[in-house]
Amino acid sequence: MSAPARPRRTALYMPASNPRAVEKARSLPCDVVILDLEDAVLPDAKDAARAAAVAAVKDGGFGRREVVIRVNALSTPWGEADLAAAAEAGPDGVLVPKVESAADILAYDRALAGAPAATRLWAMIETTRAIFALDAIAGTPSRLTALCMGTNDLAKEMRARQTPERTPFHAAMALTVTAARAHGLSVLDGVHNEIDDLVALETVCRQGVDFGFDGKSLIHPTHLAITNAAFSPAPADVAWSRAVIAAFAAPENAAKGALRVEGKLAELLHRDQALTLVAVADAIAAAEAG
After folding, report:
1. Does residue 3 belong to any structural domain of this protein?
2. What is the pLDDT along the chain (290 residues), one digit of tens a residue?
3. Which of 45, 128, 151, 216 has the fewest CB within 10 Å, making it most exposed?
4. Which residues pair with 216 in a beta bridge?
5. Are residues 150 and 201 in the same domain?
């Protein structure tokens, strides 16, 4: 079980067409800044937003935060130019919308052929077709490093209601996490639409943690504190995990497959889970320390 190389608890969308928002993102406590050229930008502002996103990446100043550009789809009038500009700018990632097949991943991978090797591909999972192609999408040899749920678009296609429990999307969420884990990818939960309902946000964050997501994409800075806390391992869990790791590392336990650690049963699978959790906690601590 491998931990993400960098924390991705919070991925905040910022319209690239809004210079004040982009500047603010440089100081916000998010793990990822997503400079959006797609949903948050009107058609007549697409070209200016593209230029602004490139300039923001080149200007830097985002510190420890990953910087990702969300482009328009290749099927749109802006997609090809967006991808060419993103490849030249070399952000940490390029998030592509409405991926539905392995062929889509390969097409976007080819479009980023001129980008630095460190520029990774992120894919939105937000269509009904994508749900039935998740293994092929996640397993396609490419720059792909993360899957992001797009529950708003998925709800539109399914004609499903977005209830507080998100019951209509449980299958899609579980399958997306499963595909990501099968192929060593990061995976982010979808946005929370109710900007002022922070109680509901905390509930869906806990749900996302239960499903196994690494973090959550967000649309407002007021969601950062709750989401960062929810997707950070609890101190008690970190302490127990360190105790499990130490117990299995002890020479007298070298041949044992199960141990009693602080009154709890710990098997080798718990040791593996503990290693992952501690790696996540250490990565968060290192990132927040600068």
Report:
1. no
2. 455 568 999 999 999 999 999 999 999 999 999 999 999 999 999 999 999 999 999 999 999 999 999 999 999 999 999 999 999 999 999 999 999 999 999 999 999 999 999 999 999 999 999 999 999 999 999 999 999 999 999 999 999 999 989 999 999 999 999 999 999 999 999 999 999 999 999 999 999 999 999 999 999 999 999 999 999 999 999 999 999 999 999 999 999 999 999 999 999 999 999 999 999 999 999 988 87
3. 128
4. 10, 189
5. yes
Residue 6 and residue 287 in contact, taking contact as beta carbons nearer than 8 Å: yes
CB-based contact 80:73 (threshold 8 Å): no
Boundary residue ending a domain (230, 253, 277): 230
209 and 252 share a domain? no
The CA angle 8-14-18, to the nearest 5 degrees, is 155
Find, among 10, 58, 27, the residue nearest to 189 by Cα: 10
Domain membership flag for residue 5? no
Global confidence as pTM: 0.94
* Residue 5: half-sphere exposure toward Cβ, Cα within 13 Å: 10
What is the three-class DSSP state of 68? strand
The tokens for 152 are 């708003």
Residue reference for tokens 């097949």: 101
Does 265 share its domain with 213?
no
Token pair for residue 38?
A: 């797609």
CA 196 to chain centroid, in Å, comes to 22
Note down the domain range covering 105.
10-230
